Amino acid sequence: MIKKKLICIRRFTQSIFLFVFIYILWSATYPLRSFLAPEIFFKINPLIVFSAGLAERLILKGAVLTVSMIMFTLILGRFFCGWMCPVGTMIDIAGGLTKTKKSLPLMINNRLKNFKFYILLSIALLSLWGIQAAWALDPVVIMARFISFNFIPAATFIMEEALISLIKFFNLYTPLLDFYRMLKGSILGVKAHYFSNAGIIFFIFLSICSLSLLIRRFWCRILCPLGALYAVLTRFSWLERITSGCIFCTKCKVDCRMQAIRPDISYDKPECILCMDCIYSCPKSITKFCFIRKDESKVKSKNLNKQKGISRRDFLLLGVIATSAFFFRFRHKNDNILKNSFIIRPPGALEENKFLNRCVRCGNCMKVCPTNGLQPVSLESGLSGLWTPQLVPEIGYCEYNCNLCGNVCPTDAIPRLEVKKKQKMRLGLAKINRNLCLPWKKKKECIVCEEHCPIPDKAIKLKKERIEGKTVLRPYIDMELCNGCGICVTKCPTRPLRSIKIFAIRTDRTLQ
Amino acid sequence: MHKKSFFKSWLNKKISRKEFLKLCLSGAALLTVENRFIKLVNAALKSDSSFGRLKKDIEGLYDLVVASGDDPYSSTARAVELIGGMEKFVKKNSVVLIKPNIAWDRTPEQAATTNPDVVAALIDLCFKAGAKRVNVFDNACNSAKQCYANSGIEKKAKEHRANVFFPSHWNTLSAKFNYKSPMENWPIFREALECDTFINVPILKHHGLTELTLSMKNLMGVCGGTRGQIHFDIATKLVDLTGFINPDLTVIDAYRVLVRHGPAGGNLDDVVKMNTIIVGTDPTLTDTFACKLMDTDPLSIPYIKNASERNFGSIDLDAARILRVDV
């Protein structure tokens, strides 16, 4: 008989979900053959689906999955936080490093725990105004960015370097090289290894985890907006904790990682993440969770709702929400700036305004890009565009026969396009810098841009010209054909500046 | 008593002059040792150099065999058989490298990459001749995975038991020449040099700079480094490279030929079906014949001109023993 059976099951479930989370992101690469779609974890995330949907005033595809998650929450409670959330798992692992079971004073805890609801409220208000801000603090997104931008590149780098140095130092070419090549064809074949801003993204993740060293589940209790959303729903859930016959030893109160148990041993239901610790810390084994009828639970919580009617505070809050409808239009004031953005977006991305609202910065498109060309934007498009994807042709180009970025986008900020249709989507326009270009400036032979141009009729045309007694092939851009994929920039041999550049003008953006 | 933290106690510690000097000296010594160590590691990791593959000069029964037929597999097999059989080129338990053109993310019908059936025929012939291992790779211009998959070569070659892999840029040898060459110190993939037989399998197609992509141009796929840099002084570089690699057998796939918008192509209208396979032992002669097939003056192709000026192979088609067969 296993001791603490429920906790073992919980830990097992948590590690399974963490493993699956890493696996689906790791396998989000060229053939896209994993059994789960890379966007699945975001589609079941109600915070993302609702805030993006509300900001854009539409129902996103795959909202059914979110509704099913909500149904489960209405039955069980905040099970996602304790049993599924990959950040929660990492926080539990980090928190397990210390033995201290410090808890906050009751008053401070009561105040701080409400902080997450204010965060949730501000996200909801912003979405009402037409600004999707869930990307900043949604835990699943933070975890996905960490896995895609930090964990996978670091893990592949370490594995590869270790193998290479083994092969080189000990001259193991015969036995190990084939194994290395096999890995390179499968799990090490991830080509996305550089991401700008990866340091900040790692720091954010690290601080979330390390905060749990000071106070257990600090993030989940005080900051997490997704946790807050589930907490709101949990008020109506059926599963209840029952402690009839309690001897008030307060052991469960000390053990509770969410500090959800009050001094009188009743529990703060929205805070409970069903970690099942209190069942096993109870010396008399009387604590249990079970489904009880509504009228029974009502008796318990009756005393809590002392006030009736609407308070002044709530009234003011409602007033703010109502007036916010007026502010809705201010978002569209800077349309001109956004339309003239110089940032090269992925193929067929939505109009800039809509794109910023839809994009949840999960990093899926950047992870899946086979050339590593999609990079997170720093602050070039303002704070509202932080970590949205942009194509950096100096690093990688948009592969002609590839539509992977649209296939993994959870909110359709980059639409799913047929390869044929995607090939016609214009990302920008190439321009040659004739002061740098070798055939133009130095009359040298170079046709690299023309050679690589993937357009069947060649968007870069070569013309034979005689200059000072020398025949030179000089490249010209065909403005009609160029789709701005950027392979000419990637492959251009001049350094440090490339003699060809993509400008985000005349772009094809999807309207809806 | 309150215990001071480690950092605080360390900061407040008084240090004597002697101790200070000791600390400085030991630090300097440590840095020197470390510097030495790093240099040693770097020296060990530095890629080795090579003077290239030895020229074997295997004479075939004919200088060139040109097979035409509807099935690329059987025409390749027949042509190799007529030039003397694969046994002439591949010894028992030897390692063979087949270097097709898998540079572009195109389908076989678009004729930017070598026909997978030609590669499959060569793999089968090599194994029949007793090869221990057949390697197939190319340094792709587009994303390697997509190129390998869409060209159909990866699947076909793996079905025929060949080793298909992506070239690794750390696993190179730097090229050395007995004469002054622009290719000096260029990184060349180790697999291309450490093989017993090198079979070059280019596809005949149009190219912007060199007019035609032929066997010598196809050898660019065994070079690491910055690909774009090869295009300066391409003629000398390609001939030097061919002399460095010395391919034993050259099989030009002219089954489907891209006549415009090369080397990447993509338009099915630009593809002409010629149903021809050219097999030869001398890369220059084979390329010259392919030029004739395309109605191009061989001397207008920069690297053939360069090769003829340096007496590297022959471009004399009249003197060559050429066999034409229909399969």
Draw up the topology in text:
The complex is a heterodimer of chains A (512) and B (327).
Chain A: H1 5-26, H2 40-43, H3 46-56, H4 63-76, H5 79-84, H6 86-95, H7 106-113, H8 115-129, H9 139-169, H10 173-185, H11 198-214, H12 218-223, H13 225-234, E1 239-242, H14 251-255, H15 277-281, E2 288-291, H16 294-301, H17 312-327, H18 335-339, H19 352-358, H20 364-368, E3 374-376, E4 389-391, H21 404-407, H22 419-424, E5 429-432, H23 438-442, H24 448-452, E6 460-467, E7 470-477, H25 487-491, E8 500-503
Antiparallel strand pairs in A: 1-2, 3-4, 5-8, 6-7
Helix pairs in contact in A: 1-9, 3-8, 6-11, 8-13, 9-10, 9-11
Chain B: H1 6-12, H2 17-45, E1 49-50, E2 64-68, H3 72-82, E3 95-100, H4 116-128, E4 133-136, H5 144-150, H6 153-159, E5 163-164, E6 172-175, E7 187-189, H7 190-193, E8 197-201, E9 203-207, E10 211-213, H8 215-218, H9 234-245, E11 249-258, E12 271-280, H10 283-293, H11 302-309, E13 322-326
Report on this structure.
The complex is a heterodimer of chains A (512) and B (327). Chain A is mainly alpha-helical and 512 residues long. Among the domains of chain A are: 183 residues, no CATH class; 170 residues, no CATH class. Chain A is 47% helix and 7% strand. Chain A is built from 25 helices and 8 strands. Chain A has a two-stranded antiparallel sheet with strand order 1-2. In chain A, strands 3-4 form a two-stranded antiparallel ribbon. The N and C termini of chain A lie far apart (57 Å). About 1% of the residues of chain A have low confidence. Chain B has 327 residues and is of the alpha/beta class. Chain B is 35% helix and 20% strand. Chain B is built from 11 helices and 13 strands. In chain B, the strands form 2 sheets. In chain B, strands 2, 3, 4, 5, 8, 9, 10, 11, 12 and 13 form a 10-stranded mixed β-sheet that branches. In chain B, strands 1-6-7 form a 3-stranded mixed β-sheet. The interface between A and B is large, with 41 and 34 residues.
